[in-house]
Amino acid sequence: MDTKLFVVQDIEKDAPLLQEAADILKRGGLVAIPTETVYGLAADALNPEAVKKIFAAKGRPADNPLIVHIAEFEEIYGLASQVPESAKILAERFWPGPLTMIVPKGESIPDITSAGLPTVAIRMPSHPIAREIIRRSCPLAAPSANLSGSPSTTTAQHCIHDLGGRVDAIVDGGECRFGVESTVITLAGKKPRLLRPGAITLEELRDALGEVEMDKAVLSQIDPGERVSSPGMKYKHYAPKAKVVIVDGDSESFLRFLNEQTGEGIFGLVFSGEEERANKPCVVYGENDEDVTQAHRLFAALRELDERGAKLVYARCPHKEGVGLAVYNRLLRAAAFEEITL
Ligand code: TXA
Ligand code: MG
Predict the structure, then answer these.
(1) Residues 192-227, buried b or exposed e (16+ Cβ, 10 A)?
(2) Which of 124, 131, 161, 309 is the most exposed place for a label (fewest CB within 10 A)?
């Protein structure tokens, strides 16, 4: 298939491109679109045939449900069978933005979109291009626009690399602002529970709702066959071809450890400035103790390690609070949970 590339710089001037993207979606096609978190691979959330193509293009397991993206809060009433008070509180504070809420699903949601679950994940993105395309089309099911298992895409170039020839169009809206996927919280159980950390932090959610639990899968590996609340958390994820090992220690001890290692294809995944003191090639992901810059750079850094032929990567461990929890959660999966403490 020929993949069209729409470069959108200005919502008004480039309106015809946005309309073309929306028309493809309304006809049941696939379009990769920019959001403030990562690029999404979008299709009409209410059209089972269209949604089926998402799973095929990504190679995504059929039991992993999709997030439905909306442009206005009111749309939630057509998608959910029940909108808890907590959803209204969170929407008021954090929408549009990088937060996905799981609520009981309405009848309009096809089984394929929610992977057969009785719930549906809903998010209202803040990216002006994403919002404009939703407005001009329909609610969009959109997982991250990467091949299943690979690091999520934060530029149109990443999307072309993973999905060129597999989708109808890619909308280039530049680099994504946050760089990690949205925070996912379920409001469908007795207590609100964080399923995936993101740019809206656990601390902020607790501030808004009071008690919020953290799902076990956020920081630990799920045994095969174990029942999970968020199916996405059980799969191999964000993995570059290279083996990744997280090394927990301060800058000095990390560099001493990295510099002592011997073997071929060893790389460091480090914070800015540390590359100058390493005797191995390094890829930088953000500044020490600046979780927002780490989130912004992480997926591009994992892709760069592959391009540079890394075989074994020792990664600096981020702190685990605030947005750092999201960075650590993604890095843990990239490392298949392998971590050394110095
Ligand atoms: O930032 C994001 O959320 C991006 C952009 C494109 O919006 N999308 C994204 O989608 O990351 P995806 O499909 O890669 O991740 C969705 C996550 C998966 O872990 C999935 O298992 C979980 O949300 N999820 C979706 N629906 C769910 C449901 N009904 N119950 C529990 N988990 C659900
Ligand atoms: Mg994903």
Answers:
(1) bbbbbbbbbbbebbeebbeebbebebbeeebeeeee
(2) 309
